[in-house]
Amino acid sequence: MGEGSALYNFLSNLSGIVWGPLLLTLLVGTGIYLTLRLGFLQFKTLPYALKLAFKPSKKKNKKEKGDISHYQALTTALAATIGTGNIAGVATAVVLGGPGAVFWMWITAVFGMATKYAEAVLAVKYRITDPNGEMAGGPMYYLSRGLKWKKLGRPLGLLFAIFGAVAAFGIGNMVQSNSVSDVMETTFSVPTWVTATILTVGAALVLLGGIKSIGRVTAYFVPIMAIFYVIGALIIIIMNSNMVLPAFGTIFSDAFTANAVGGGILGTVIRYGVARGVFSNEAGLGSAPIAAAAARTDYAGRQALVSMTQVFIDTIIVCTMTGLTIVMAGQYRGNSELDGADLTSRSFEIFLGDVGAYIVTIGLIFFAFSTIVGWSYYGEKCFGYLTGQRGLGIYKIVFVLFVFVGAISQLDTVWVFADVMNGLMAFPNLIGLLLLSGVVAAETNKFLKVAKQERQQEKEAKYTSS
After folding, report:
1. Tens digits of per-residue pLDDT, 27-36?
2. Exposed, middle or buried, 460 (CB in 10 Å: 0-12/13-18/19+)?
3. Backbone phi, psi, residue 68, to 5°
4. d(CA 224, CA 13)
5. What is the DSSP string of 454-465?
6. Which backbone phi and psi does 135 adopt, to 5 degrees?
7. 66 or 230, greater pLDDT
8. What pTM was estimated for this model as a whole?
C-alpha cells in the first residue's frame, strides 16, 4: 500500500497531528528551558566538549564503567543521525519552507545541544548493567528509574520503548535501505536485489557483533563519510566564494519574511526548519542517549558534553554545507520536479558536473547505511527493555532481514508510519527531561567542579614540566 491508500492517508493525517505545533513547540521550548537552567552551557563549553570528543582514549580505569569509548559512543550516535536528513531533509525544508528554513534549523540545533546534553546526563546516571553484562540506558530507564512518581514514569518508559523498537524498523532500517537501492539503480543501474543483498550481508556482519562491533565500525566509518561529503561541499563554496555571503543573506532575510515560497508565511518557514532540524539531529527524540549510556565514563557530565557535540557536527556543519549549496544553486525556485535528494544532487551537479552528483549519491549511500547500524542498537535496547533482554538474537536477525525487504519494496506508507513513531518517541522523553531537569543541573554542577580542577592540574603539570 502506498500513496493514495486509506492507510497512507490516515497515517499522513496522524503524522501532521503528531508533528504539529504542540510537539515542535515542546521540542524547542525544552531546549530553551534547559539552556537557561544550565546557564548557556553549550556556548561556554563547546570547545572543551569537542576536545573531549576527539582526544585519544585513555586506558580504562576503575572509575570508568561502560562498553565503548566516548568517541565510539559519539560516532555510533552520529551514525544514526547523519543520514538522509542531511541530504534530503535539508532540501525538503528549503523547497517547502524557503531558504529561511535553514536559519531555523540552526536555531533548533543551538538549543537542541542543551537537550542532547541533558538526555546523555540522565542516560548515564540511570543506566544499568543488563543480564548480558552490557550497559543499558536511555529514556525508558531514566523515566522508570528517575521519576519519583512511578505510576507516571513506568508507563512513559514503556511507551518510549515500544515506539523506539518499532521506529527502528522504519526510519532506521527499511526507508534507509530503500533510499540506497533507489539511488544505486538510478545512478549506477544496479538492480535492487543486488543492492539489497550487499546491504543485508554488510548489516549482518556489523550488527550481530553487538555494541562493541558497532562502536569499532562507526569509529572509522563515520569520520570518513562525513569528511567526504563536507569536502565536496567546501570545494563548491570555496570555488564560488563570491556567492557565499549573498546566500547567507538570503537565508537570514527569508527566515523572517518568507518570500521564497510563493505567498508562504513565516509560520511555514519556522515549521519546516524546526521539523527538519529535529529530523536531522534527533535532539529531544531520545534515541542518541541510548548510545551515550554505553560509553566508558566516570561522570555523566563528561559523556554528556561529548554527546552534545553531535548536534553541532550534524546540523551546524553538515546540514549547513547542504543548505548553502542548495541556496547558491537556486534550483529550489519554481522547480516542482526537484525535491529531497534529487534537489541536493542537482545543486552539486551545477557546480561540479557529474562529480557533484556522484558525491551526493555516494554520501547518501554511506549516510543511509550508517543510520541502519546506529538505529539497530537503539531498537535492540528498546526491545530488550520490553522483554527483559530475552529474544535479542531473534530481534537482530529479523532486523537484518528487513534491510533486504526495505531495499526491494515501495515504502510510501512505511515512511509516514516511521515519521509518526519518531514523533511519538519524543513526547515521553521530553516530559522526562523537564521533570528531571533538577537532576541534570545537579550532575552538571558536580562535573564542572571536577573539570575545573582537572584543567588547573593540567596547567600546573605543563608549567612544572617546562
Report:
1. 999 999 999 9
2. exposed
3. -135, 165
4. 39
5. HHHHHHHHHHHH
6. -70, 140
7. 230
8. 0.89
